[in-house]
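Consider this today:
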Amino acid sequence: MNSTALSPAVTLSRSVERLVSGQATSDGAGVKLTRVLTQDLQQRLDPFLMLDAFGSDNPHDYIAGFPDHPHRGFETVTYMIAGRMRHRDSAGHEGLLQNGGVQWMTAAKGVIHSEIPQQEEGVMEGFQLWLNLPGSEKMKDPWYRDFQDAQLPKLTTPEGVAVRVIAGQSHGVQGAVTRETTQPLYLDLHLPRGTRFEQPLPAGHNAFVYVYRGEATVGGTVVGARKMAILANEPRADGVVIETGPDTKALLIAGRPLKETIVQYGPFVMNTQQEIYQALSDFRAGRLGEPQR
């Protein structure tokens, strides 16, 4: 799945609109994490609803995991850098997510699932991204796919930047997942010291960079470790240029906005309050996670 990249030309990089530090919180059965993309940024970064970063070598921070909980109306993309997590859901899907792997789950009309660590010690680190679904797809059947590290498309640029293409397309390499409506781009970039990476981006797409190791210069702005840079939507800019001094690892995420009303109540994301009431009613009545027929 490795290939040598074609070299796209970005004539004008997007600038950084603002830097975000994220909020320390906990979820599931007390898993400690940083909520990087928070609810107040959902309209600005449409179609993305949330990005959580989790990472610890203290088992007490993660060992209880995420017991059974419901979702409706969106997709979850879990990317594991280190550690092992077992997924089970009410649609009959099961998978083991481990180092370098990705789990892509379309909750759509509803699933109840669990994500439980399969280790008692060591490092657990990764990310979970929530990607919205258009109203026309929110009540479709759930979908699930695991991608182990070896199954993910990868490329290396002429400068030596290693890229995992989780979704979308980069440097002529098609990612593991495509979505026609939201057109997500999800790249994990490993940039050796003193290198640069260019990625064309459609002008209308919302985009951000999250640096999780090292330090990068994005469109002329320095972005430190554990910082998210929201990229400005500049009509003349045709992409983004990321440069690095030290060795750096970063996520580049972009997508086409849905421009639909977002109504969220915990694990349910719909278009109207009435649809939220229906989701709650279905969950309480045991209908939300019914097996597919």
User: Anything to note?
Assistant: The chain has a mean pLDDT of 91. The first strand starts at residue 16 and ends at 20. The radius of gyration is 19 Å.
